[in-house]
């Protein structure tokens, strides 16, 4: 919230911001939940480094849904022009893990879910403008 308010202060009237963020409602996350797996980092990370935990997970880490992102923008006085989901990680011509990795049944199912379920792609994009 603090950052969005600061961006609003810095952006000229009728200027725009573009925000991208992971989509907590992505197909990958939905499949993990269906199989009883967490969408967060492993719980073992809390106990690394002699019980102090991994510093990587001491930072703020929050993924959003499209409606949450729109709400954050609107409640910090931005005009929400667009919120949509998109695929940031398209298939690459050469995958060092081999062709079997690219065409695995799980990967094909994931790609199918991305197109079959609205809002299930890996990332969100929001475009918002500062009112005059």
Short characterization:
It is built from five helices and three strands, in the order αβααβααβ. With 132 residues, the protein is of the alpha+beta class.
End-to-end separation: 20 Å
Percent helix:
25-40%
Walk across the major sheet and give the strand order.
1-3-2
Query: SSE order, as H and E?
Result: HEHHEHHE
Question: Residue-averaged pLDDT, rounded?
Answer: 81
Instruction: List how many beta strands DSSP finds.
Output: 3
Which structural category do the helix and sheet elements fall into?
alpha+beta
Largest sheet: 3 strands, antiparallel
Tell me the number of helical segments per DSSP (H or I, 4 or more residues long). 5
Outline the low-pLDDT stretches: none
Give the overall shape, derived from the CA principal axes. Answer: flat
Beta fraction: 15-25%
Calculate Rg over CA atoms: 18 Å
